[in-house]
Amino acid sequence: MPISRRGGAGPSLTLLRRLCSAVAVAGDEGQVRKIVLDELEPAATDVKVDALGNVLITRKGKGGRRLKVMVDAHMDEVGFMLVADSGDGLYEFATVGNLDARGIAGKPVVVGRKHTPGVVGAKAIHLMSADDLKRPIAMEALRIDLGPGGKAEVGDRGTFAPNFRRAGPSVMSKSLDDRLGVSILIELLKHAPANVDLLAAFTVQEEIGLRGAKVAASYFKPDLAIVVDATAAHDLPMQRDAENHFYNSKLGLGPAIYVSNGTAIDDPRLVRFLIETAARARIPCQVRQPGGGGTDAGAIQRALDGVPVVSVSVPHRYPHTAMSIARLEDWHNTYALLSTALRRITPDILRGRT
Amino acid sequence: MTDILPFLKSLISVAGLSAYEDPVLQLIKKEWTPLVDEISISRLGSLHALKRGSGRGKHPTIMIATHMDAIGLMVTSIVEGVLHVGEIGGVDPRILPGTPVLVHGKRALPGVVAIPPLLALPEDKRSAPVGLRNLLVDVGLPPGSVEGVVRVGDLISFDTNAVELAGETLSGHSLDNRASVAALTVCLEELKRKEHSWDVWAVATAQEEETYGGGATSAFELHPDLAVAIDVTHAKAPGAENWQTMGLGKGPAIGWGANLHPFLHKRLQELAKKLEIPISVDLTPEHSGTDAYAMQVAREGIPSMLLSIPLRYMHTAVEVIAIKDVQRVGRLLAEFISGLEPDFMSTITWEEKDADK
Question: What is B5-70+173-353's CATH number?
Fold first, then answer.
């Protein structure tokens, strides 16, 4: 018999659009922090914005034998910083985080907290030689163009211009990584279960080395942690009819539960628990293919004297580009799985064998 | 002077790829109808608008060509719900990944151009840049639900927004050549308030980006005495600062080269000086790459000219122009037309003749 779901209607698309339309490049997460605080502060009793800018919210449960469960989603996104004024509205820039350099030229961007519009252009194809076209566009030749006389400050951050769009069963946007996770975490807090102490970390600087999560874990001292992120779906057709064995995750198959990645081996007890929960609640889920990449789990696992961790991600195509794609049903099912799991989790889970 | 910005923004908010210009043609037709005496559509889909000169009898005619078609992509195959694409007009594949697009199937589907994961690329294609053959367009639909909506041959247009940047500049797709359509509109507005003895054919041409098909056939059909193409030229931009590039917002560029008549060039230069409109000279040693190339050899040959609007990042989805340049081109052209004497054609001379005098 399926477990009843008591987590509300699920995360809000309007909120996801707002989160994706904010600009929060690693190190400058203020715009997402503000949305998180606006959404949660009125009802929360224990809210802390720490020294790095993490938003740390404690929602205590009721009764005895409560697990302290940390849930984590990162607020920051990849982008760039203006590093030199080249004159007359043109700025040199450096990337922040592992931005896919193959998709920067020819894109609208915004810079600074007021989202000053600009473009990263490219020399016209008419002016390129055949040899030029065989080489990648040289990053050092690119500039952010705000228009003649346009002004910004060297040191300002920026990223691709907000471009959220609904496409049938999917959403397309910049920064789905990890606004999908942030929106899920907000909803989990709004419908926090009473059987656990829920410790929510909206972290900073994930994209440049999992730095926010490390101190967040030290603050919360949780019994275990669940990291909610977005993972690549490389589920595209292969050339010449070969089968795709290296898809990482696939759109439409539900939340991707990690077993291991470049930064952590997920706690086997928690992995088994999530898979079993999904099966019992009849929520589709998939196991993310083991391998590279990383989430905040890597930092949390080795914090303090060690924290059992597991990561769960919403699959999305074209990570770290101007426009990624995710399925709404995967996002909803990720929320449903976590909401259900939190309600049935008990301290016994950590007494099991790894 | 008319505020042309709202109209230009509307022009770059619709598709209208080569040979499929109808969405943009309808906007232009609506805007031009009150400004002209006759309006019709040619057999290849160019828009012909006639503004008659004053006075009785037969007037000499000038044709102004601004191509309205845009570059873009076309569906070449559909594999497991993702689209493979070819180009319409010249597109640098390296600027495409991450570009929002509209796929014009049975209904318009929003999509994005993407690079497949490395492992889904042939082994010899894994190092950048990824060519057009290996890029794809993803419309966010599961395999099986795309095939009923999209077929091979469907068009894909850029879907970036029109955005105003600093310095009264505008960014978006298809400013090549919708900026010139706007400039011709400014010219028609100006001519409403001016006397002109020549008949003016304002033409929004089709298919320039592929074949100059509209420019060639409209020049044949209308058989003008003079022809002027308005198009965009390269503005100085990061990495593009050679002799082929003009200052953005520094005024119209007047074409010079074999496709263009030197007498008309001289006349425009002198006029710009008189009007105190800054200009630069757009050198085209061989081929101007515009409708002027096609119009010059229509019928028995037509003295042709090229006026250009400097534009950054040509054939990307984030082209940039200065509104001021659009206004200046429109004004310069209106002054040129109203200054044409009824017997202007007989005054055209070649320099050799001048030298003999």
Answer: 3.40.630.10
- Closest CB to B244: pick one of A127, A145, A321: A127
Does residue A105 sit in the same domain as residue A193? no
**Residue B240 three-state SS:** strand
User: 3-state DSSP call for residue B132?
Assistant: helix
Amino acid at position A279, single letter: A
Each residue's pLDDT tens digit, A120-167? 999 999 999 999 899 999 888 899 999 999 999 999 999 999 999 999
CATH for A50 = 3.40.630.10
Please check whether residues A304 and A274 belong to one and the same domain.
Answer: yes
pTM here?
0.92
Catalytic (active site) residue B208: yes
Domain ranges of chain B: 5-70+173-353, 72-158
Instruction: Please give the ipTM for the structure prediction.
Output: 0.90
Please give the Cα distance from B261 to B160 (Å, whole number). 37
Q: Are B130 and B115 spatial neighbours (Cβ–Cβ below 8 Å)?
A: yes
Select the residue from B80, B145, B316, B325 to test the A interface by mutation, using most A Cβ atoms within 10 A.
B316
Mutual orientation of helices B22-32 and B175-192 as an angle, nearest 10°? Answer: 10
| DSSP-based three-state secondary structure for B272 | helix
Are A178 and A286 within one domain? yes
Report helix, strand or coil for A53.
Answer: coil
Mark yes or no for CB contact A103/B115 under 8 Å: yes
Class of domain B72-158 (CATH, top level): mainly beta
